[in-house]
Amino acid sequence: MQIIKTSETEAEKVIINLSQEKSHSKDVSIMVDALRASTTVTIALDYFKEVIPAFTPEEARELSLKHNAVLAGERKGVKLEGFDIGNSPGEIKEFETNKKSMVLTTSNGIMTMENMQNPKHVLVGGFINAKSVAKAAVELAEEEIEIVMGGYNHEFAIEDFLAAGEILFYIEKELKERNMTPKENDGSNYELKDREGFSEYAISAILASRNLELTNEQVLKSKSGKRLSYLNYSDDVELCMKRNITENVGILKDGKIVLY
To answer: What structural domains and CATH numbers belong to the chain?
Structure first.
């Protein structure tokens, strides 16, 4: 779509996409891994100036030495041997250190970012910062906003779908507040769709996310939710489900996630 911009920061038209694991956008992409990477990164930015994503445990160890950083990570929910902490937002809040950086490697969310090399801007979003990440995405977008769900073991994860719906709700609200209209005629300003071109997927995510009680129930019942509870991370799950408790938005710059 050809975009005619009204200013340096706002587009007249924007396409909003919802996809799984891999980013296709060259504009703005939001990584969503509700349980737990998105929350871990977002909370970590209260305590560290940067979060450095690593795609393997070996790379994480090397980066932590290079940057004198806290070493954080997990595989299948379990803290990696020899690491300072796991992929736990709760542990971060209680962890005491003078270090300014944290290296993080995770099974799904951070791994998803390895497939997000093309976008001009990569943001990190979840339930806890849905409103703020939506606002940031709209501010940055020139033609497209893509939400990339991390999933679980390369499969659909309902918690990421519901968190994506929460973010989509606020993206649409933000666009409407800017007097932009959905695609109903040739004068529209934005379009909700997925990679196959069907708007129902994104719309379904929005609708599914609007019932707080049912959404929380499904997150708790999800494969990830039950696995984390079994591993004694129930508090993390509860924290990850909280809505808009922070205005932190992580943005990837030069291989590091910093505050937007």
So the answer is: 13-35+108-259 (3.90.1560.10)
CA distance 249 to 35: 17
Q: What pTM did the predictor assign?
A: 0.89
pLDDT digits (tens, 9 = 90+) for 29-60: 999 999 999 999 999 999 999 999 999 999 99
In 28-152, DSSP assigns E strands to 28-32, 50-53, 70-75, 78-79, 101-105, 121-125, 144-149
Q: Which tokens in the block code for residue 32?
A: 């969503």
Residue 80: count other Cβ atoms within 10 Å of its Cβ.
Answer: 19
DSSP 97: -
Q: Using CA atoms, how far apart are residues 71 and 80, in angstroms rounded to an integer?
A: 10
Which residues in the chain land under pLDDT 70?
1-12, 181-199
Answer whether the bond into residue 243 is a cis peptide, omega within 30°: no
- Whether omega for the bond prior to residue 210 falls within 30 degrees of 0, making it cis, is no
Q: Using one digit for the tens of pLDDT, what is the confidence trace for 149-172? A: 999 888 899 999 999 999 999 999
The residue type at 135: K
* Tokens coding 47: 């305590």
Give the span between the Cα atoms of 183 and 15, in whole angstroms: 10
How far from chain centre, in Å, is Cα 69? 22
Instruction: Specify the amino acid at residue 251.
Output: I
Specify the DSSP class assigned to residue 127. Answer: G
